[in-house]
Amino acid sequence: MKHLWHNCHAATMKGGKYSIIEDAVLVTYAGRIEWIGPREELPSIPYDVEVDLEGAWLTPGLVDCHTHLVFGGDRSREFEQRLEGVSYAEIAAQGGGIASTVRATREASEDELLESATRRARQLLRDGVTTLEVKSGYGLDLASERKMLRVARRLGETLPITVRATCLAAHALPPEYTGRADDYITHICDEMLPALADEGLVDAVDAFCEHLAFSPEQVERVFKVAKGLGLPVKLHAEQLSSLHGSSLAARYQALSADHLEYMTEDDAIAMAAAGTVAVLLPGAFYLLRETQLPPIEALRKHGVAMAVSTDLNPGTSPALSLRMMLNMACTSFRLTPEEALAGATLHAARALGLVESHGSLEVGKVADFIAWDIQRPAELAYWLGGDLPKRVIRHGQEIDCG
To answer: Given this model, what pLDDT does residue 88 score?
Structure first.
């Protein structure tokens, strides 16, 4: 049925700006936006259902473009230990850190992972997220990576949310490959990626390029295989040191390079030329008490699109609110509320390869939008926590976020 939505204002985010339409009207049909504009310009369009939005502000559905949402266990005890002065190295020596998440994820059944991931995904959905990415990377063997990616697919089938699945097998070195990083990369390239891609479980390929993970040369091997399989690439880069991973990502026309605290202006120039999105992750910055800020001015200067995401994961960003990340991006990274909202809509969609269909309120795009009970769009980055009153519309149908 064709719906006409009225008595609202719209921050369409077209072009990465608020692009406000006062007294807006949307017409949706078959899950898409058929018309949007001021009421006074509404053409004669027959419709089946009229919906009064009671003065709400509309934005595109939020897009969480970097999450590690599927995992076993949690690491709240490590959070306590770090606050008590125990070092990360000591925690790792005790079997903690990412190794503990890998063990818990390998031991959990697919249904157990789906149950815990569903709880977290529902929290994001209630926060206004209608599209998200889920990375693997806590399995680190073929069976466990497959299990994680299957859960990601099932989340998209069982919840009213669009899910993109990213293979992050090159996240860390599994214990059975200790001291043999090149052999593990060979395993990823020769066995894991081809098998998972053939099973239709992968939408993109990611890697962690860092001194405590994988070198640029090792990452490039993964990228070459991904490209040969027709899969776009992404990269965790420059979080802890400058290895110019973001420039490497740009050379492979990566959808995004993420974290980026230690990137250089030359990296920003390379990303701008490639159209690679900079994904900012203020949750991890906050929890790790980092002091090295991403070079926001260089990104602005060279016109690099900046996305904002939760980086939801059990170790460094147990973040269940993308709206909270908007505030943190403004307060910690000095983004404007407009830039932050663009980062969680249009630019986040671009970071997932979905910008042609998601991320802004434009004719022909998917009818995913939120009707917020607020006075102005900046409130989305202003309020700290809480559950802002809202109505969530996905594919042109209002959904229950409970």
So the answer is: 66
